[in-house]
Amino acid sequence: MKVLAAMSGGVDSAVAAARAVEAGHEVVGVHLALSRNSGTLRTSSRGCCTIEDSMDAQRAANVLGIPYYVWDFSEKFKTDVVDDFVAEYQAGRTPNPCMRCNERIKFAALLEKALALGFDAVCTGHYASLVTDPDGNLELHRSAEVAKDQSYVLGVLTEDQLKHSMFPLGATASKSEIRKEADRRGLSVANKPDSYDICFIPEGDTQDWLTEKVGKAPGQIVDREGEVLGNHEGTHEFTVGQRKGLSIGRPAADGKPRYVLEIRPKTNTVVVGPQAALAISEMAGGRYTWCGQAPANTDEWTEILVQVRAHGEALEAKFAILDGEMVIKLLEPLLGVAPGQTAVLYAGTRVLGQTTIDRTVSAVPVGA
Amino acid sequence: MAIYLDHAATTPIRQELVQGYLEQLQVLGNPSSVHSSGQAARRSLEDARDLLAKVVGCHRSEVLFTSGGTESDNLAIKGLYLQRKSEDANRTVVITAGTEHHAGIDPVEWLEAHEGAQSVWLPVNGNGVVDLDWLANYLTENAVRVALISLMWVNNETGIITPISEVTALAAKHGIPVHSDAVAAFGHVSTNFAASGLATMAISGHKLGSPVGIGALIVARDAKLAVISHGGGQERGIRSGTLSTPLAYTLAKASALAEAEREEMSLRLGDFKEQIVSAVKAVAPDADFTRGDQPGFAGIVHFTFPGCSGDSLLYLLDAAGVSVSTGSACRAGVAQPSHVIMAMGRSEHQARGSLRISLGYTTTQADIDAFIKAFPVAYAGAHKAGLPSN
Q1: Which end of chain A is least crowded, N or C, by CB within 10 Å?
Q2: Separation between Cα atoms, residue B363 and residue B275, nearest integer Å
Q3: What pTM value is reported for the model?
Q4: What are the DSSP calls for A101-113, one per residue?
Q5: How confident is the model over B196-231, as pLDDT tens digits?
């Protein structure tokens, strides 16, 4: 196959490309230029956007003996990921930009371009496994390396995208194995630190960065009964489940700390309350996709596992598609889920599909 | 073996230099040493200076060897600015153009950030031609504030030629020094320094067939430059550092070889350029030959392709064994739309559809045939892939 290896400059994508080469594919390395103002050297724990990262990717491609190019997706990245991230926060939601990047850039814009240019597949260094079921259908499963599993952020992929994807790291037992393998292959990124932060936010301070982007928009902090408890300087500075930085002078009647329960962008209001009120029993979203074959009888309740954060736990739940909406009922209440987050459904280790959460239902009624 | 059509990035080393270069490498001695070994090295170095001065059309004392074009531009732009401002504190304006190479733009921006300079960007039209009427008017009003003018002779991306003698004639009325980055021009179009009226001119060896790592700054005897790089005082004190006799030899010799075949090559490349333009237009009628009918160096053939990404074209041509470029090679590591094409008033989308085919002294009809054969397939693929923003 003719394979485009997306190379960030990190160790995972370098080893993934190496394995694709070893499997006999015709591999071309491509680094995505996503930032307009690339820094010279890598700082903190950002992953991919400096010239040094691009040079690291090129060095790895050269060592593997494959052609290497830098393709500019910065404009699309800005509109579809960065601007979307800001807009989601402004709408009172908590987005996952890595997911949006997979959905709109890596497995959409890049994949489409690759297919148009004659490639058969895009290969990345994600930790996830592609499995073919007995009927020949593709399934996405969790990685064998559970601690590094990234199947959650790939939950947005559709059956057609899976057909043109390759995740050569899926069967790997551990990250340290990948580092050893990189070292054995002579790849200088073998000991490069992992990246954690959102790549387009310098110094990793999301709130400061957002304030710079959208400016201050003062509003009120209220409790669930609507009583005004204080003021804020912009709802984007808050996420559901947040406890610190509320600056409310008066303590709660029971003396317990207050948490952000809800953000209401229309009235520019932040709703706070006791931790118990963070518990939700249900979540739902109208924008959902199936990762591979769609399950049968989705109008009936089906038991599944649901995960709402990249490194969160999979929780027991049931789902159904009701009135065009994916509705997920949790077996046990869950704390602090915000609209904008993605709920990924699993059947065992298999990724079934996902939805971006539009609304949640509290497990605790107001006044309780 | 790839079909190499990226001579504006670097051109193959001339085989006539190799033997002499290897011999020079064996010569022991620092040209600044006083003993006879040093004097032998100095003798070779000054032979190179004589030869280069002859080709450039300047006095031997006006040749300062440097490491290449970028260093030469920095020494000249910063040196002229600081000198002129030290003579008269009102002289803070540097006139240049947005279509310059980064080696010309970035020193000016540095002077703005650190030395109180004010950049004035000379307007250019859609083909990249600088507006001399605007310059004349500006100088009439503001000449006392102008420290220098810096304009490249041939644009490295579009091949457009700036009428340097017209610029220097305007500047001379007000006693303003003019620097020109002639890296893409020297050895390719006529560039006699003495006749040019320039104060300083930057040239580079590897665009002519010498190894990378050697260039020169030509500094008129009456031009004054503040010293910005300090050391042993070599090269009129403007460019300190031990000189490489072997590389000076290759620069001088490559320049002489280039100059000797310049007119013949220009005719040959002009014919190749016509073939490329008509072949591209036949396949992609909406392709824009960027410099249009304006005077240009035949060896640089630049297009913008609407709705088509230059990096798709580059990839597909490279996969077909043809090496071309989307613009300057000097911003490798990041992919950004060309500032040169955008300074000519093109949108970012248009700039992203850039492709530069650059020809040199080794280019043959077979190379052109190979490009013309590979282009239609590459264009069809790139057009299908479109722009990532669509």
Answers
A1: C
A2: 13
A3: 0.88
A4: HIIIIIIIIHHHH
A5: 999 999 999 999 999 999 999 999 999 999 999 999
